[in-house]
Amino acid sequence: MVRMMRKKGVEQHPNFRAMKHVPFEQFIQLVAHAGCVIGNSSCGVREAGAFGTPVINLGSRQTGRETGENVLHVRDADTHNKIYHALELQFGKRYPCSKIYGDGNAVPRILKFLRSIKLDEPLQKTFCFPPVKEAFSQDIDHILETQSALAVDLGGTNLRVAIVSMRGKIMKKYCKPNPKTYESRIQLILSMCEDALQDAVRLNCRILGVGVSTGGRVNPQEGVILHSTKLIQEWSSVDLRTPLSDTLHLPVWLDNDGNCAALAERKFGHGQGVENFVAIITGTGIGGGIVHHHELVHGSTFCAGELGHIMVSLDGPECTCGSRGCVEAYASGVALQREAKRLHDEDLLSLEGVELKKVEAVSAVHLISAARQGNTNAQAVLKTASTALGVAVVNILHMMNPSLVILSGVLASYYQSPIQDIISQRALVSSQSIKVVTSDLEEPALLGAASMVLDYSTRRTY
Ligand SMILES: [Zn+2]
Questions:
Q1: Distance from the CA of 335 to the center of ligand 1, in angstroms?
Q2: What domain range includes position 70?
Q3: How far away, in angstroms, is 322 Cα from ligand 1 center?
């Protein structure tokens, strides 16, 4: 700091006083009475929390750490204006001191860590120190540990857990069949997370929290699954945050799979830096998420972004939600499978070189290959499905007017071009330029679940 002041010629300025090695008592007095503490990383952050003194953190070392409500993180403080604005927001404020630092779980977390140490194993990690040129200081934490999240994905078939690094790399993945009952499902989530936490230590990953993606409607503020999809039984009115955070001693975030897909695009995919976009995930069902002004739209009863239940016909086929004519009932994997089975039963789904004996094995994949081989029945089914999805997208464009639509899931690449065609045929002229792209992300649900932890574990970001 002194070196920088000298460089800028302000070392002798009357408003500045450069000091080195302030005695601790004096430092505490300064922090306790300051109108605001401004600095990088650990500069008084912890001490200020104890006194409720506001802090403006300009560095990146605290990113992802638990800090109190008193800390305003100013990332990329590259302009004077940004720092002036932060000062306007913070200067002279006082924050409550009680439980201001961390989430109150530090002691159980330390105890848990101590218990996890196996005394017969030598406490050694192998570190690779990257060469750093002309750096005044090195951030030991960043070198020693990768800030990471535990991501959980609860689908109709599988229960998956992954360790995801800050940059979106999946360090390790675990997959088991999703149990049919509440009790065994919770037990399995906990045991898979505990295994992953053990592995995280070996992988040098510091787990900041747990992010959960699940089917159904979710209240992310309370951490409660309100109504599940039919694919996951005993999963309505379930408080998932409490058992997870009580056992794992980590903060827990959750949201539904469609919203998680949108969050994944916002952090790691085509949605990076895009102010308004919509993500649509086409898999077994159809889900989605709406990002408006860089934030997810949840709606008044957490039902926004239920894009699979946009109705594209007044009657139409029955949907899993109990209604009719929803786009999910036309274009989802389940809907295509239903149509494929129907064609198969009527002996209309013949495939060159493929013997389809068991009707259970018939799926959307067979429908698509039959259509590619020129089967007109399969082509007609797929045309209806893609028209339905295209019409749903046009409805979304007219309602939200995003600048980008991102398709993900197994059927995304198939649907992209027909959707673009329907837009050019049916959308209002001013929304026809909107781009439809397919996602590059392999695991949108897991990455989205992880992004909640990676983005929100630092509580306040400027
Ligand atoms: Zn529906």
A1: 12
A2: 2-90
A3: 6
5-9, 13-17, 58-62, 425-429: which has the minimum mean pLDDT? 58-62
Could you give the 3-state DSSP secondary structure of residue 295?
strand
Q: 311 C-alpha vs ligand 1 centroid, how far in Å? A: 7
**pLDDT (mean) for 272-281:** 96
Give 258 Cα–ligand 1 centroid separation in angstroms. Answer: 14
For the cut 70, the answer to whether the pLDDT of residue 408 exceeds it is yes
Is 18 inside any structural domain?
yes
- My answer on whether 41 and 16 are in the same domain is yes
Cα of 452 from ligand 1 centre, angstroms: 27
- For position 203, which CATH number holds? 3.30.420.40
Indicate the angle between helix axes 376-400 and 364-372, nearest 10 degrees: 110
Which of 223, 239, 149 lies closest to 186, judged by CA? 239
Examine the domain organization and report whether 381 and 238 are in the same domain.
Answer: no
> Is position 380 within any domain?
yes
pLDDT, position 98: 47
Is the residue at 282 inside a domain? yes
Give the residue numbers annotated as catalytic, written as ranges.
257
Burial of 308-346, coded b for 16+ CB within 10 Å and e otherwise, reads bbbbbeeebbebbbeeebbbbbbbbbbbbbbbbbebbee
Judge if 320 and 349 occupy the same domain. Answer: yes
The residue among 139 and 314 whose pLDDT is bigger is 314
Q: Give the span between the Cα atoms of 263 and 280, in whole angstroms.
A: 12
* Same-domain check for residues 376 and 403: yes
* 247/151 same-domain check: yes
Which residues lie at CB < 5 A from ion ligand 1? 309, 319, 321, 323, 326
Separation CA 297–CA 303 (nearest Å): 9
Cα 265 to averaged position of ligand 1 atoms, centre (Å): 24
- Same domain membership, residue 81 and residue 208: no
Q: Do 343 and 364 reside in the same domain of the chain?
A: yes
The Å distance, Cα 323 to ligand 1 centre, comes to 5
Question: CA 271 → CA 43, 291, 417, 440, distances in Å?
Answer: 34, 9, 19, 11
Q: Dump pLDDT digits (tens) for 188-231.
A: 999 999 999 999 888 888 888 999 999 999 999 899 999 988 88
Asked if residue 124 belongs to a domain, the reply is no
Distance CA 397, CA 401 (A): 5
Domain count, the chain: 3
Banded pLDDT at 90 (limits 50, 70, 90): confident
